[in-house]
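Page header: ASSEMBLY MODEL / two components / 372 residues total.
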Amino acid sequence: MNIFIYDSFLNQKKYDRLLARLETRITDLGLNGRISRLSPTRNVQETINNELKRGASAIIAVGNNKTINQTINSLAGSQVPLGIIPIGQDNNDIAASLGIESMEAACDVLAARLLAKLDLGLANQTYFLSNVRVNNQGTVIDMNKNYTIETAEKGLIYIFNLIGQQVKPPPQVKFIPDDGFLELVINTYGNKKFFAKQEHQSIFKIKKITIHNLKHQLILDGSISLNAPAEITVIKKHLNIIVGKNRNF
Amino acid sequence: MFNKQNQGETFNQFETVIGPSVKVKGDFNGQGNIIVEGVVEGSLKTIGSLEVGKTAKITADLEAKEAKIGGHITGNLKVKGFLEITATAKIFGDIETAGLSIERGAIFNGKCVMAAATEEIKK
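Prediction written out in full:
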């Protein structure tokens, strides 16, 4: 049975009509299942663990990047696939990277049930599917104690498993979310010309990295905060996921 | 990769790009092709190809399968295949390579050993 995990923000009245439309579409496609609504008092992990024990055939995260992150942290390592239904455009770039552009498209993707086995990033004890972001000011990057990386200009540091729209890498660099590697991307902006800032980009393929920063927190999947220092690694092919044809890998 | 047809062209795919605002300190070991446009101090080795841009400042010993150099290098350079040194390059160190081209305008101060030549002498 498909289990639809509705994020708590969908309990707002303004989503009622949208969710009714979604449920009609799901019924039309024969994807019916049980709906589980999250709330501030209802634990995601407990909800998903219970559904897995009851023999769920797929866990469908209905919401945004935060919903996806919370779901993968309960589903990692399981054979049960994750489906995604994005609600709205804000903070939903993970779905777009997987070829799921809208709520309507997501229903068709679920019906087609095209499966991929993807890597998951792990920052301390928290999994991430897409990326970790941190301000580069005050950040020290330690690469397995073999070498260190310093940046001279202001910018952002990303560690990608699944690339989103945050950066535009050169066409010669491929980001593959099932190769057992993460990509460290450092985007800096030249200080000299204020009105014509020049963007500089550095890319490293990594398996393990430690990030130190006393001032800034790390942001996982655009929504979850984590204090540094953080050891970041990759777990190869640790999540079954239903993807669309237009995915970016 | 550096056969007659594509000598002087850029490589197809890269694993690592060290941009102009980044400094790498320590021993860097790569598995794929590398572009360096920033600062490297220590050593840099790869089993793939190496492209050093004109903004790069490297104080390190370098090892690669093939290389195209356009930046400033202080250190020894060991290239298994073909080494292309472009007009903007400044190299202060020794070179060991199997094939070499140096464009007019490049600066090279050091010894050069060609692997093919040493093999012939041994014979």
